[in-house]
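Example A, followed by Example B.
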Amino acid sequence: MTKERSKPLKTNTFLSLRDYGILINTLVLIFGAGVLLYFLQHQFQEVQAIKFNSFWGSMLFYFTLTVLVSKVLFFLFLLYHYFKYKPIASVTDEELPTLTIIVPAYNEGFFVFDTLKSIAQSNYPKDKLQLIAIDDGSGDDTWDWMKKSKAELGDFLSIYQQPENKGKRHALYRGINLAKGEVIVTIDSDSLIYDDTLRNLASPFVVDKSCGAVAGNVKIQNLKKAIIPKMLNVSFAFSFGFIRAAQGQMKTVLCTPGALSAYRKEAVMHCLEDWMNQTFLGVQTDIGEDRAMTNMILKQGYNTLFQSNAHVCTNIPETYGILRKMFTRWERSNVRENIMMSKFAFSDFRKENKLKPRILLINQWMSIISAYPALIVMVLSLVFYPLLFLSSTIISVALFSIIPALYYGIKYSKMNSLWIFTYNLFYFFTLFWITPYAILTANRRGWLTREQNEAIPTDDSVMNYEL
């Protein structure tokens, strides 16, 4: 890996003729849906009459109105905190805490070598760093690449091999018990960090003594390899740059991502055994370790922050099959951890700022509670008013895509902001079933068969970037 690979990626990603074709077709589809909706006004009036002339229709109307109004108010709530957000500037070398960086790896091959090299190139004081890489029983050549990294980096890197694949939580647990630093940093083994990432990530622990965890700013590395990463890019940018920034201003980031996060060791050790032995409905939990750790640190009364200047580039799925598995795992974790958070969020869990975490949690629950009513309405509408449903849905999705599109267009690239329209339509028509299915199967274990060298990020909040 060269030095340049750990530098920020260009946001104006090259668009091929195929990309232009997809974006143009998306806009044509939205325009066509608008024209069709205009000619179906008589059906729309029939639906309106049903809503107001029947009990269930009225209930559905007022439920939908309540959800819509709450989402608008919640967006304004986020917008207010977003404009107030500022990342904490880096402190001096003398003030920086000692770090233990843990890189768990499973079937990552040469990616882990690049990751470890990018960490070694950080401008963090080397005498304050402890780097640990753990091979979680990989079936490929991951261990060989770790040994190559060890040969190149020397005593700066310590490598360990699990006797068998036990899951990411077990690998992290082993690394945490070996940690000597005041702050523990976790980085996914297919991710590259920037030169100043570590110092920006660690500085909040010095400035805010109540800081228990810090979330990094995740960007997509494999943008040019497939359409799915390009589509997801705007969603990632909005999820981290806008939503997590707002949560960070509230000092209540709900999930510190597995790709890059930092934790105060004292807080981690206080909940480590509970985290390692966590169960849900009597079943041992082996997914959602990042959200679970965040919850347990929040429960102790600590602040959880976000550093927009602590960047990491990671790979994401490039195929539909792996994407749906990732989203299913994320949403199962989301259901579980919302339940866990509900057990303490309405108690006196910290001295101040208790209302904002509760508002964030209520918004999370509204998305889950409305999943089945929305599914029922969708099925009925598709059966009785198929053209009206399809056209109105496309227009509605387009309208809700405007906010992240504007955000990305203003901050990065106007042309690439159009991908959010394609992605949201793709998600609605091919992945709408994820949340209802995840609710029914929330107690299931497993990463849903991780594929060799197939990236599956471990953050469960990107999918639900929408307000």
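Example B, a separate protein, is given below in the same form.
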Amino acid sequence: MRILCVSDDEDVYLKHIIETSQDKLGKIDCIFSCGDLTKKYLEYITDGVNKNLYYVVGNHFVSQFYQDGGKESDFGLGGTDMHGRFEVVGNYIVVGFGGSKRYNPGKFQFEENEMEKIVRKTTTAVKRRRFFDLMASNKTKDIIVITHAPVAGVHDKPDRCHSGFECFRNFISEMKPLLWLHGHIHENRKKIQQTVLHNTLIVNAVPSKIIEINDSELSVRRIID
């Protein structure tokens, strides 16, 4: 499985490749977005690569994705909002949690206990799916998680806005996902920020990464490499 993951900043080089030399991207199976990107940019990427988009919303551009009252607005190109839910994508279970830690009155921000409830509910749903797979003698699917905010203590910052959620660590400990992709943290673009926690590879997706999975073996590269 080969994933194009984008987050936070519009990648000029990715745009250039889509417009002029898509062969440099190689075969892409799906697109993940970890938030804080405009609907217009995501529609451009989705249309250009012509693959399904699975996304979470960050703490910016929220009104482009949710109408007043929290109702999801029409995306236009069939993007799937993954916040607080899961989808089976190929041989994987993809789980999503959007938003950030609450740091002002803005939209789509959560206190730790609020996010914990969402994580707990989603964990139960994933366990139920795995149970049905077990009863049907299906192979247990590895889990991939996409979030906007980071995991507490991994790539996060000391300020409240950019601190991670502790309940994400609990999800990793309990569910043991293969891969965790997040945004929200703007680091040195010349290196890939990645960390292994309890055998889960955690990757900062900002602004774009190519993730390749072969038999649970993972490789990560920047678009520009």
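On Example B: The first helix runs from residue 12 to 20.
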